[in-house]
Amino acid sequence: MRRRIFALSMIAAALLLFMIAAHAATTQAAPPADTPTGNPGRGAYLFTLAAGCGCHQGAAGFLAGGEAFEGPFGKIYPPNITSDAATGIGTYSEADIVRVLREGKRPDGSQLFPIMPYPAFSGMSEQDQYDLAAFIKTAPAVSNKLPASVYSVPIPPFSPPPQPADAPTGGVARGEYIVNTISHCGDCHTPTGPTGAPDFSKFLGGNTDFGSANITPSNEFGIGTWSQEQIYLLLKTGKRPNGTQVGGLMELVINGGLKDITQSDGFAVAAYLKTIPAVDSAPVAAPPQTLPTTGNVLNQTLLGAMLAFALVLLASGAWLWRSARRVN
Ligand code: HEC
Questions:
Q1: Would you put residue 171 in left (φ > 0), alpha (ψ -120 to 50) or beta?
Q2: Is residue 6 part of a domain?
Q3: Is residue 207 part of a domain?
Q4: Pocket of ligand 1 (CB under 6 A)
Q5: How many separate domains does the chain show?
Q6: How far is the C-alpha of 83 from the C-alpha of 179, rounded, in Å?
Q7: Which end of the chain lies in a sparser environment, N or C, as judged by fewer CB atoms within 10 Å?
Q8: In the structure, what pLDDT confidence band is assigned to residue 232 with cuts at 50, 70 and 90?
Q9: pTM above the 0.85 mark?
């Protein structure tokens, strides 16, 4: 189960890196606003929309650190993020946690590895980030010391994408915000092209590497015949209109939090999914990919470094997911 969550996080991180690389040259961060105060109640709901911080969950207790993840990029311990001052993040202010979400940086300025999905959370509104941070700060202190992570590859630099002044509250804009920022459905539902980057010409058209479905409005290949209520019920219960139950990664995403999506947000997601272009073909697999053989990612351009990283994350995530399926 936890390996699947690791796999999911890696896949998410990889695909977000692609998106950020693609937009890096044309985007600029929003101007700073007045610092908000987080509301932990609202943060709890954002926590469920993001399917929980599953990597930080383990035997030690709620958010007290997860199982080590070992991959081609080293051995990484999802840290204890409870309010314990000595072994957790009890000394972090809300603003410190927001900086982690927005920039992927610790209070000392060091960059986190993008297995932590800050590339996604970066695009949330500042208020939403403060709310999520306020919720994280309510996690009761648990003393659990983890070893330091070991990185075998360089951590790519990160420029935060534009951030909306306020999170959309309803309708298609709200659905778009949830799908592309908090819940990032495209990480599993969009196929990747020969370079490993998402093939946006088939946005949400399904990717057989992750066993995902075409969720575009195509009547034949997607969910064009589903009503908005049927889409909402799928997100909440995992039940398709024909009565069958979804499994695999989608079941994880639902159990991890989407099951608690509000009716209004569920319908917003459904409304947004109705507006995207129909992809009139079955889900496809990513074409075979090769990692750069010249090796030194540091000497590439920023874009090249991010794409190479994303390839490693994607391949490892897919491998973890496959091996987790064998075990379970
Ligand atoms: C971690 C990967 C992952 C994420 C993230 C994800 N999905 Fe899925 N989704 C899947 C997989 C895999 C399936 C197929 C499950 C099966 O066939 O049992 C699926 C199935 C579905 C289906 C059913 C389609 C059908 O025809 O049966 C819908 C609808 C759906 N997802 C919507 C979404 C939406 C909306 C989001 C974002 C809020 C989302 N998914 C996020 C992996 C994911």
A1: left
A2: yes
A3: no
A4: 8, 179, 183, 185, 187-189, 210-213, 215, 223, 231, 234-235, 240, 246-250, 253, 269
A5: 1
A6: 30
A7: C
A8: very high
A9: no
